[in-house]
Amino acid sequence: MSAPTGRVLTLLELLQSGGTRTMAELADRLGVEGRTVRRYVGQLIDLGIPVESVRGRYGGYRLARGYRLPPLMLDDDEALAVLLGLMARRPVADTASETAAAKIRRVLPGRLASRLEALLESVAFTERPGGPDVPDGGVLLAVADAVRHRRPVVIRYTDRGGRRSERTLHPYGIVSHAGRWYVTGEDPGVGESRTFRLDRVEDARALPGSFEAPAGVDPARRVVEGFAAAAYRYEVSLRVQGTVEQVRARLPAGIATVAEIPGGGDAAGGEAAGEGWLRVELRAERLDWLPGVLAALDRPFVIERPGELRDLVLAFAGRLAARARGSAGDEAAVGDAPPPQDRPLAVADAVQHEGDHRAGEEASHDEAHGEHECDGHQKFPPSEVQT
């Protein structure tokens, strides 16, 4: 490659990094005079690359938004990062991902290509149960544009029961959570929160007008907390003594809500600094995973509801005590294992299982028009069971 051609490509790489580059900066980076920079810019324009001239004291050159993507200049690390990102999508890869990866691999330098091949030969990919949940690219871009410009959007949505409907939404943001994409916002007709899985949206189009999003709205928090408040079979309420960080280490935001109980602590009772009583609330289809999680939490707790959980915890504690004494544990070890409905899963697997289950649902809003529902302020008489 001749020196002038190499400098033209370097100029393109500098412009692709974004912003406006001054004439003095470009001349210094290329090691040429200003008139040579202008000649190189002319060559890029002749190649169909949209370069704009910016006048003024801080003027210079920048890439315009053209009708097509200009050639990309990637160094080794950037090319590898893009390829790894595309390869990570392999279990759910679409045609665009495959062709983009193939194009980059064809132009990789030999030394980098051989290293990438060694990596790909060493990596195995697992498939997500239930198949891919990739949203349509056109839908994703249309919703994103509506979010940016605060425009209402109408979507054609199919819920998990196969029922189709047309929904209007004021979209606050798009959230990628646990391998799925969601849009969250408000239904302007009834003024209630809505969250939808984008892979179940067949079409999205912006409507005339605009809307104002609530101040400080956090789309990711809305989605994650919505899972914790979803209507599942059991409503669980606990009081736990400890810090929020200790509870969150075992029960993340997508599983449970955690709130301080005003005046709930008693420092005179031996409580460590910052370890007051917290109210932990969650909803779940199953309870068998919770005793193991509470044991791993290793903090004093009170079960407020449901009574079934109290029974499971007592049974779990009895099995642990018996096995620690080496009596009933020997019998269980040779085949007298507790029935599956009473046997908690391993703690990490249990929480992951519950999180995956929630991520696969619409947090009850398919049947309830998409809204997250939470009745977290009801008070129930506490259980006398405490550990």
From TrEMBL:
Keywords, alphabetical: Transcription, Transcription regulation
Source organism, top-level taxon: Bacteria
InterPro entries: CBASS_pafABC_assoc_protein, DeoR_HTH, HTH_11, WCX_dom, WH-like_DNA-bd_sf, WH_DNA-bd_sf, WYL_dom
Residue ranges, compositional bias (Basic and acidic residues): 351-378
Disordered, as annotated region: 328-387
Ranges of residues in domain HTH deoR-type: 4-63
PANTHER family in UniProt: PROTEIN PAFB, PTHR34580
Name by which UniProt lists this protein: YafY family transcriptional regulator
